[in-house]
Amino acid sequence: MTKTAKLLYTARTHTTGGRLDGMSRSSDGRLDVRLSPPGAAGIGTNPEQLFAAGWSACFEGALEIAARRRKIVLPRKCAIDTEIDLVLEEDAYSLRARLNVSLPDLDRDIARDLVDEAHRICPYSKAVRNNLDVSVNLI
After folding, report:
1. Nearest to 26 by CA among 15, 39, 40
2. What pTM value is reported for the model?
3. 4, 6, 13, 48: most buried, per Cβ within 10 A?
4. How does pLDDT run across 8-54, given as a tens digit for each residue?
5. pLDDT tens digits for 57-85?
6. Is residue 22 packed enough to be buried (19+ CB in 10 Å), middle (13-18) or exposed (0-12)?
C-alpha cells in the first residue's frame, strides 16, 4: 500500500470445513453460510457463487462511479449476471468468468464505455486482471 492509500474496510471471516459441509462466518455476524461443493445436493453455497455475488455487486458500484463521473443516470433496471466457472485442466483447478451487464434504455455506445470503465476501476476486476479468462459483455 502506498503512503497516500487510505484503508476503507477490512472484511474478516472464519471458515471451517472448506467445501465439504463447511461453514463461513463474518466477524460482524452479517454473513453466516454453510458451504458445499458446486452441484452437490442439499443446502449450502460454494466459493464460486460467493465470488460471483461479490464481484457483481462491486462491479455495479464501479458502474455507478463511472456514470456519475460522466453525469449519466444509470437505468433503474441495471443488472449484472455473473458466471464463474470452476475448471479442471491437467490436474489443476482454475476459474473463468463472464459478466453479462444489462443497461436497458442507454445508448449502446455510452453503455459500452461505462462497462469498460467499470471493468478498469472495479477492485474485483483489478484483482483478477491477467489471472483469469474474463469476458465482460453488454447484453
Report:
1. 15
2. 0.91
3. 48
4. 999 999 999 988 889 999 999 999 999 999 888 878 999 999 999 99
5. 999 999 999 999 999 999 999 999 999 99
6. middle
Instruction: Convert the chain into a string of H (helix), E (strand) and C (coil).
Output: CCCCCCCCCCCCEEEECCCCCEEEEECCCCCEEEECCCCCCCCCECHHHHHHHHHHHHHHHHHHHHHHHCCCCCCCCCEEEEEEEEEEECCEEEEEEEEEEECCCCCHHHHHHHHHHHHHHCHHHHHHCCCCEEEEEEC
Distances (CA, A) of 68 to 59, 112, 138: 14, 15, 19
